[in-house]
Amino acid sequence: MADKPPVAAAPGAAAPVAGPRPVPAHAQQVSDPELPEQLLMVPGPTPVPEAVRRYGSAPLINHRSAAFTDLWARVHAALRQVFQTEHDVFVWPGSGTGALENTIVNCFSPGDRVLSLPMGAFGERWSEIAEAFGLRVERMAVPYGEAPDPEAVRQRLRADRAGPGPHFAGVLLTFNETSTGVTVKAPAIAAAVREHGALFLVDAVSALGGAELRMDAWGCDVVATGSQKALMAPPGLAAVAFGPRAWDACQRARLPRSYWDWRPYKQKPLDPPYTPAVSLLYELDASLRRILAEGLPACFARHLALRAVARAAFPAAGFPLLAAEEHASPTVTAALLPEGMDFHALSEALDRRGATVGGGMGPLRGRMLRIGHMGGLSAEQLLRFFGVFDSALSDLSWRGAGAALPAARSAAARVGAV
Known about the structure:
Elements: H1 25-28, E1 39-40, H2 50-53, H3 66-83, E2 88-93, H4 96-107, E3 113-116, H5 121-132, E4 136-139, H6 150-162, E5 168-174, E6 176-177, E7 182-183, H7 186-196, E8 199-203, H8 215-218, E9 222-226, E10 237-242, H9 244-252, H10 262-267, H11 278-294, H12 296-316, E11 332-336, H13 343-352, E12 355-356, E13 358-359, E14 368-372, H14 379-395, H15 404-415
Parallel strand pairs: 1-12, 3-4, 3-5, 5-8, 8-9
Antiparallel strand pairs: 2-10, 6-7, 9-10, 11-14, 13-14
């Protein structure tokens, strides 16, 4: 695919001034910082392809211009394809956590009851956001490494519906839990929520673009994500898609909102009410075009292949996997530290060799490591990481040193990852 940064010259623009302008004395004294070179394996932000990164240096344009309207429309049309929805999708400057707050303030009123299904740190964070805005949150939490049981969720919702009320106004589900490398059977849970009548809100921050998620076909009312994970763009953009039931709820919602308010965006879909992050939108536009050129089925298959590589390599070196195969994430793999392995020592050994991994969160802090294998990460980079991993284990005189890379290579050949 030929990726060229956009040209910002407009018809009728004045000719540039001939010759370079003198550099102010104070600017001549500024030295550029040394940028780190690393094999970034944390579960986000993830590596951004060079062909996407260079769009971030494109000249800025007026966000009230026809050129920006074209960019805005193109990004949102592509996002609808990736969300697999025909409904509204809008983008704000912000993080994935911002996207989650966005969903709460637009859908609910103070005192509304919601059922939350946390299975790790990020599901718990969403619950805490809801509580911060005065919602009454009931948690059906499962231990780290496990996934909610759709039938148990159905039974709880049926009991709620049979009760005197007020009933649950919404159900909060983290589709892919970044802190544990667990994904859920979202279609079955969506069906139970539809039967109940509550809104179904889905956190897809570490899933969208890397795992099958059919917003309309599954009956999701709201899906939220961020730019920095499987969408293989830099951090800084929050995207939220919402259907007609959520839009109806937005008209009734009484939680305070201003910056995140859907209504100004809905009224003028091609004219964002606040200053957009133009450079980040250029990069997201480039990454979305790459995803859609690859095709969503091929993109999802690629992530599953990388998952197979990671899930073969860690146990070979003596690091047990946290998630069972049936709900293992396509984008994040979490491995428990074996007896005698210190996370800080391992992390420092990896850092010395140019690789960075994520650690455990919540009750698994210091007991686990996590890697992301999504977005722009290639199979070659993943294999390179496991070579570095083996070397770091050798530095620590670990008995499993040297076993991860051969297992990774074997798995990559088996699933056609390389």
